[in-house]
């Protein structure tokens, strides 16, 4: 049997692939956080709750209304984005002139309230969400048996990240967003309705989190705490990649997912902390993050 | 005769050409936080005029432009443009009624290419220069259009800052220190471009430290000191006032 550093190649490739699946979620979530932070200068602690809400909306659509997975991919992000518009207009926008800590505390409190309500309503246990019929089954790749749905998650997340990157780097909306990240006042003086741009950006980030939540529903259980379990890792990813760097958030998400997978092969006990070790080292060596601009 | 240095500067009543003003500023006060920077600025700019605000550093020239647009902590007084009250508009209002702004230090976005910088400000109602016309006026911008905005030289950045506003078709532009830090040959090119724009009927209010440049392009001058306008005169009166201007501007 082929081995790499004494580890069977099959196990290695298998864990790399599993790492890539986790990395898909890290990438999508850290991307949304980076977009929001870049423009709003708000560290959106409600991101995990918005991810959870996306999964719950999908679950609710299926259980209560019989609306399936593919429609949920469209509807759940729109519902959560609409909710984000209300939150941003009614509350978050009032905190922009203040210390960024206020935005952080507000979104943190909001996440606790939303998660608390869902725990009270649904309990801490997860609700299963069936894999859509088209993606049931598994494929033998030779080195591992890959459930088709998980392969789909990797492909879908790559497509989503690429689409968001194109939106930001190649469109007029993206040019407004990048310019406003540098100098919000000047962009508004040029005639752009920046308050509305901020609202849309927050909605975009929240919608992305919800989309990741729908993708996660068949993989993980749909539970009130699914977001808070994940979001701490995602914050570490954002710190490593560099706050506000779009490409950096995406790349770092996948890379750290794979690193976590590899750690599971070589030294399993360290796998749950390896991302935080990397974060600590990056903070010491390059506080702006691997892809962040210094200063 | 106004005495400088020992007394508070006081606003003067000045003779101005008659005719309706495109921009009218009346008794404008402005504050940054606790500090009271403008103490009742009055000025008028008629359609088609190029008017220059002169004054030493800290006299309130840049703040006057910012207060006209609403980029100050607090302001009081009247600002009307083309018959509209700018003080009742949100920050994105003035641009939408045709008032363009070329800020101090140019405000070129580092994360955007030259072409993206050029296309950034949304177009106003009508008119505006086409990209071809802009490239004819500032040929350097054409060659550099895919470079990041801040990789341009200072002169090119200034041309880009002016060009992106011209593309939106403003009735008037507020221009803050367009020659700051530029080589004389570039200053001449900027002056030539401004004369060309004046010939097209564009109205300009320009803040400038470079008196030779200002003299070259302006129809009328206001002199500011301590947050108020202390003198106003036409281009034909410059010669007779040189001594006083040297005293006022420290040039």
TrEMBL record, chain A:
<keyword id="KW-0472">Membrane</keyword>
<dbReference type="InterPro" id="IPR001851">
    <property type="entry name" value="ABC_transp_permease"/>
</dbReference>
<comment type="similarity">
    <text>Belongs to the binding-protein-dependent transport system permease family. LivHM subfamily.</text>
</comment>
<keyword id="KW-0029">Amino-acid transport</keyword>
<keyword id="KW-0813">Transport</keyword>
<feature type="transmembrane region" description="Helical">
    <location>
        <begin position="99"/>
        <end position="118"/>
    </location>
</feature>
<feature type="transmembrane region" description="Helical">
    <location>
        <begin position="42"/>
        <end position="62"/>
    </location>
</feature>
<feature type="transmembrane region" description="Helical">
    <location>
        <begin position="148"/>
        <end position="168"/>
    </location>
</feature>
<protein>
    <submittedName>
        <fullName>High-affinity branched-chain amino acid transport system permease protein LivH</fullName>
    </submittedName>
</protein>
<feature type="transmembrane region" description="Helical">
    <location>
        <begin position="230"/>
        <end position="254"/>
    </location>
</feature>
<keyword id="KW-1003">Cell membrane</keyword>
<keyword id="KW-1133">Transmembrane helix</keyword>
<feature type="transmembrane region" description="Helical">
    <location>
        <begin position="197"/>
        <end position="218"/>
    </location>
</feature>
<dbReference type="InterPro" id="IPR052157">
    <property type="entry name" value="BCAA_transport_permease"/>
</dbReference>
<feature type="transmembrane region" description="Helical">
    <location>
        <begin position="68"/>
        <end position="87"/>
    </location>
</feature>
<keyword id="KW-0812">Transmembrane</keyword>
<feature type="transmembrane region" description="Helical">
    <location>
        <begin position="266"/>
        <end position="285"/>
    </location>
</feature>
<dbReference type="Pfam" id="PF02653">
    <property type="entry name" value="BPD_transp_2"/>
</dbReference>
<feature type="transmembrane region" description="Helical">
    <location>
        <begin position="12"/>
        <end position="35"/>
    </location>
</feature>
TrEMBL record, chain B:
<dbReference type="InterPro" id="IPR027417">
    <property type="entry name" value="P-loop_NTPase"/>
</dbReference>
<dbReference type="InterPro" id="IPR052156">
    <property type="entry name" value="BCAA_Transport_ATP-bd_LivF"/>
</dbReference>
<dbReference type="InterPro" id="IPR003593">
    <property type="entry name" value="AAA+_ATPase"/>
</dbReference>
<keyword id="KW-0029">Amino-acid transport</keyword>
<keyword id="KW-0547">Nucleotide-binding</keyword>
<protein>
    <submittedName>
        <fullName>High-affinity branched-chain amino acid transport ATP-binding protein LivF</fullName>
    </submittedName>
</protein>
<dbReference type="Pfam" id="PF00005">
    <property type="entry name" value="ABC_tran"/>
</dbReference>
<dbReference type="InterPro" id="IPR003439">
    <property type="entry name" value="ABC_transporter-like_ATP-bd"/>
</dbReference>
<comment type="similarity">
    <text>Belongs to the ABC transporter superfamily.</text>
</comment>
<dbReference type="InterPro" id="IPR017871">
    <property type="entry name" value="ABC_transporter-like_CS"/>
</dbReference>
<keyword id="KW-0813">Transport</keyword>
<feature type="domain" description="ABC transporter">
    <location>
        <begin position="23"/>
        <end position="251"/>
    </location>
</feature>
<dbReference type="GO" id="GO:0005524">
    <property type="term" value="F:ATP binding"/>
</dbReference>
<keyword id="KW-0067">ATP-binding</keyword>
């Amino acid at each position: 049997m082929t081995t790499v550093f004494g580890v069977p190649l099959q196990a290695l490739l298998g864990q790399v692939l599993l790492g890539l699946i986790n990395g898909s979620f890290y990438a999508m979530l850290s991307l949304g956080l980076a977009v929001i932070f870049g423009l709003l200068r708000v560290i959106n602690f409600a991101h995990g709750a918005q991810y959870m809400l996306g999964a719950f909306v999908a679950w609710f659509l299926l259980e209560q209304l019989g609306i399936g997975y593919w429609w949920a991919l469209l509807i759940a992000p729109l519902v959560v984005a609409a909710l984000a518009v209300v939150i941003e207009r009614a509350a978050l926008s009032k905190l922009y002139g203040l210390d960024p800590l206020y935005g952080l505390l507000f979104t943190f409190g909001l996440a606790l309230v939303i998660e608390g309500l869902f725990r009270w309503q649904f309990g801490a246990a997860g609700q299963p969400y069936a894999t859509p019929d088209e993606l049931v089954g598994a494929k033998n790749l030779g080195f591992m048996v890959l459930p088709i749905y998980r392969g789909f998650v990797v492909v879908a997340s790559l497509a989503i990240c690429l689409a968001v990157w194109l939106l930001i780097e190649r469109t007029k909306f993206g040019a407004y967003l990048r310019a406003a990240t540098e100098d919000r006042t000047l962009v508004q003086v040029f005639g752009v309705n920046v308050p509305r741009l901020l609202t849309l950006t927050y909605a975009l980030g929240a919608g992305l989190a919800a989309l990741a939540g729908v993708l996660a529903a068949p993989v993980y259980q749909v539970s009130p705490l699914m977001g808070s379990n994940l979001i701490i890792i995602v914050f570490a990813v954002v710190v490593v990649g560099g706050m506000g760097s779009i490409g950096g958030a995406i790349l770092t998400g996948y890379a750290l997912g794979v690193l976590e997978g590899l750690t599971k092969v070589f030294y399993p006990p360290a796998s749950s902390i390896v991302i935080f070790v990397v974060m600590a080292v990056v903070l010491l060596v390059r506080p702006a993050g691997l892809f962040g601009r210094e200063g | 005769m106004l005495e400088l240095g020992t007394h508070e500067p006081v606003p003067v009543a000045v003779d101005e050409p008659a005719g309706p003003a495109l921009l009218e500023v009346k008794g404008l006060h402005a504050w940054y936080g606790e500090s009271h920077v403008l103490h009742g600025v009055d000025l008028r700019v008629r359609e088609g005029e190029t008017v220059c605000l002169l004054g030493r550093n800290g006299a309130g020239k840049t703040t006057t432009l910012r207060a006209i647009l609403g980029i100050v902590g607090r302001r009081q007084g009247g600002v009307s443009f083309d018959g509209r009250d700018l003080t009742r508009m949100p920050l994105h209002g003035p641009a939408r009624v045709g008032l363009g702004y070329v800020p101090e230090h140019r405000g070129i976005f580092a994360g955007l290419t030259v072409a993206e910088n050029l296309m950034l400000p949304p177009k106003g109602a009508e008119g505006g220069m086409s990209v071809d016309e802009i490239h004819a006026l500032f040929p350097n911008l054409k060659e550099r259009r895919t470079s990041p905005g801040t990789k341009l030289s200072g002169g090119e950045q200034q041309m880009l800052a002016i060009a992106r506003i011209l593309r939106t078709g403003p009735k008037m532009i507020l221009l803050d220190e367009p020659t700051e830090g530029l080589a004389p040959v570039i200053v001449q090119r900027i002056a030539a471009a401004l004369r060309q724009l004046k010939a097209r009927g564009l109205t300009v209010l320009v803040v400038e430290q470079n008196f030779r440049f200002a003299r070259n392009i302006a129809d009328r001058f206001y002199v500011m000191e301590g947050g108020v306008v202390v003198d106003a005169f036409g281009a034909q009166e410059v010669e007779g006032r040189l001594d006083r201007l040297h005293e006022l501007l420290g040039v």
